[in-house]
Amino acid sequence: MKTGVRLSDSIVLLDRENEEESYRLLCSSVSKGVSMIVDISWFPWEKAEELSSVIGVPIVRTLLGPQQLVTALDNYLESRNATDAAIIVESEIDVDKTLYELLGSSNVRVWVHAGLSRESAKALKTMRPEPSFYAIVGDSEFVFNTYKRAVKEKLVRRNYRWNLVITDYVESSYIEFSQLILPTMFLQVDPAECCRVINQKDECSCPPMQKNQIILNSLIVYIVEVYSKLDDSTVTVRVDCEDLQAELNSTRDKLYKQFAEDTENNETIFYWIEDRSSLLLRSRFILYTYISDEGLTKVASWFAGENYKLLPGVTLEPLKMFFRIGTALAVPWTLPKLHPDTGEQLVNEEGQPLYEGYCIDLIEKLSEAMNFEYEIVTPKVGGFGKKLPNGTWDGVVGDLMVGETDIAVGALTMTAEREEVIDFVAPYFEQTGILIVIRKPIRKTSLFKFMTVLRTEVWLSIVAALVLTGFMIWLLEKYSPYSARNNPDAYPYPCREFTLKESFWFALTSFTPQGGGEAPKALSGRTLVAAYWLFVVLMLATFTANLAAFLTVERMQTPVSSLEQLARQSRINYTVVESSSVHQYFINMKFAEDTLYRVWKEITLNATSDQAQYRVWDYPIREQYGHILLAINASGPVPDAKTGFQQVNEHADADFAFIHDSAEIKYEVTRNCNLTEVGEVFAEQPYAIAVQQGSRLQEDISRALLELQKERFLEQMASK
Questions:
Q1: 627-636 burial string, b = 16+ CB within 10 Å, else e?
Q2: H or E stretch including 356?
């Protein structure tokens, strides 16, 4: 450096709202003589640039705020494929600096706020979509105090999502990382930079002055060093802003060229950006990961102006995507997970309620297949979604429509009305419809129930045949000359003697599998016995078949077997859940019947041509659903499905039916053996997963569902 250099400065405070006054102060300083204009404002001042260009006085810009660290943070976030981030800084001016630094150069959508209050924490919680990453930028004290507040407000919930960016020169060994409750990223400037900036050894202690003051002092010293390398030139220029026709100063171009040459070897503490006329600190950024079990681990190191790069041999695991998944309670799809002893709903470590069911298992399987984390969200208002008079939606559909959730997985039926505001994912994972459930009638039991298999006349005929056969066997044995009693010479061995008592016993035991025993010897007796045995075989076969059919039919018999039969009869009352989709179905069908009736009436009454073509013997429009809705209103819709099943179970005479969602009815039938399904499923609709309109997730989820179908996972779930 040349000796005898004397420095003096003139500070101009830039007021963006009154630039004319600030420019007047700048001109006043220039008129007294100036060698260089140093712009340390966070937003380049165009008037100072114009003045520098006209009079040829060099202008150098530099950054004294968190901008360089914000740029380093942005490089890291983009390497993690971040789409959005919430950044918390110390002050409102830092908000402006951060936004300007990222504007036009970052692909990450950011939300920047000064500090973290209860109100801003609430805003972060309700922000949709939820930020993929969070960052706190400031000095070490501010960063960790803000982190504590974030933990208190339950914002810290996922690994590696929070990034702590420390702007001051503090050694990591002096930081209490035990405050971090989850694996966290930690970014700072190499603390050894402070010693290099003040031109001291690496083991120096950083002076107790603000970082910005240290950098600015070092910048002025460096500029003077570069000036000393120039040839003799007119360094100081005095210019009157009212008369800018003076000859241009030649120092500007020479100085810029000298800056470029001097910083070319990357060994200086500053580096030159020609198109911005900026001298920026050549900071070295260090990125760490902190895990409570492993401590602090350095994973990346790079210099300002360079691209982010990991250390050799270091890899970072890809971060999982995070989605808020909306669902609504429906048996057996989504159920509260209850404590087996107390019956209270269980919650996780963060105090969020836990759920179980078919859809919860499906969500867990999808999260494994698509590698994402999730949070279950139930709607604050409504169920699966109903269109309101003002055109908006409530429930699961409404949350998905406004961005409160990213995906909807539940017993959500696919309708044309819903497809206008959300997108459904094909293939559909289940089919649903409407079904009727009724209680199995309690059959009266009796000790002589088997006697009812045959009519009384048949039983009397069997008894008469037994008595008559027994008497005829005795009569033929006694009077036939060929019997063993009357012809002992033909049967020298002992033979059975058919007395009247023995004859009746023979006729009776012939009905048993053991048989009647030894038959008569006479041809007439044997002919009678053969005919009687044929009668016995036919009677036993008839009784056995009728008994099996009687017991089977009695067990399976239901009072009605279809919706049409239910509508035609009057003994069985029936109902639905009030304001449910099933209730709305019958309301809509009645409206359709009424509309068709009105149209038919108008056509027939207003016909001007041949009236004969409208002459019919049967009314062409059914009024079935009108009758059904009248019966439902007479019985009174129930508030929920649990009440409906309870009422069905209480009617032991099977005189009450419940019309409801088929999946829930089938599930309840498997749990309650007193209930039985009636008829076939009608008004079938598919259950489908839904996403926001135009969401890129639609194709990914569809592909994952196809894979699960190939693995027969959905079938296994349905069989549970």
A1: bbbebbeebe
A2: strand 355-356
Q: So what's the pLDDT on residue 2?
A: 47
d(CA 227, CA 222): 9
205-232: string of b/e by CB count within 10 Å (b at 16+)? ebeeeebeebbeebbeebbeebbeeeee
The amino acid present at 179, given as its one-letter code, is: Q
When the pLDDT of each residue in the chain is averaged and rounded to a whole number, the result is 84
d(CA 519, CA 8): 145
pLDDT on residue 87: 95
Q: What confidence score (pLDDT) does residue 508 get?
A: 86
Strands 321-326 and 59-61: unpaired
Alpha carbons 115 and 86: distance in angstroms, whole number = 12
CA distances from 138 to 82, 165, 352 (A): 21, 7, 32
Span 212-237, average pLDDT = 75
Distance CA 358, CA 276 (A): 59
> Is the per-residue pLDDT at 1 higher than 70?
no
CATH 3.40.190.10 fits 563-684, yes or no: yes
- CB-CB neighbours of 278 under 10 Å: 18
**Band of pLDDT at residue 304, cut at 50, 70 and 90:** confident
Sheet holding 284-291, edge to edge: 109-114, 84-89, 133-138, 162-166, 184-189, 284-291, 295-303
Kindly report which listed range (50-59, 395-404, 586-595) carries the lowest average pLDDT score: 50-59
pLDDT grade for 363, boundaries at 50, 70 and 90: very high
Of 25, 28, 35, nearest to 55 by C-alpha is 35
CATH architecture of 67-190+284-303: 3-Layer(aba) Sandwich (3.40)
Judge whether 358 and 347 are in contact, CB under 8 Å: no
**Residue percentage of the chain with pLDDT more than 90:** 26
Q: Summarize pLDDT for 368-383 with one digit per residue, the tens.
A: 999 898 999 999 888 8
Residue pLDDT, tens place only, 445-461: 777 777 778 888 888 99
| Residue 176 CB burial class (10 angstroms; 0-12, 13-18, ≥19) | exposed
Q: Tell me what pLDDT residue 176 has.
A: 80
Residue count of the chain: 720
Main-chain dihedrals φ then ψ at residue 86, nearest 5 degrees: -110, 125
Architecture of domain 321-429+689-719: 3-Layer(aba) Sandwich (3.40)
* SS3 assignment for 527-593: HHHHHHHHHHHHHHHHHHHHHHHHHHHHHHCCCCCCHHHHHHCCCCEEECECCCHHHHHHHHHHHHH
What are the residues whose beta carbons fall under 8 Å from the beta carbon of 215, sequence distance 6 or more?
62, 64, 197, 281
377: β partners: 326
Pairing of strands 430-439, 422-424: unpaired
Domains 67-190+284-303 and 321-429+689-719 share a fold: no
Q: What is the pLDDT of residue 695?
A: 86
Name the 3-class secondary structure at 355: strand
DSSP, collapsed to helix, strand or coil, labels residue 167 as coil
pLDDT tens for each residue of 391-417: 899 999 999 998 889 999 998 888 888
Q: Where are the domains of the chain?
A: 16-62+197-281, 67-190+284-303, 321-429+689-719, 449-556, 563-684
Q: Which of 192-201, 374-383, 641-650 has the lowest mean pLDDT?
A: 192-201
- Of 140, 141, 223, the C-alpha closest to 189 is 140
3 state DSSP class of 222 = helix
Q: How much is the pLDDT for 620?
A: 67
Q: Which residues contact 84 (CB under 8 A, 6 or more apart)?
A: 108, 109, 110, 111, 129, 131, 132, 133
327: pLDDT strictly greater than 70: yes
According to DSSP, residue 441 is labeled P
What's the CA gap between 25 and 45, in Å, rounded?
A: 14
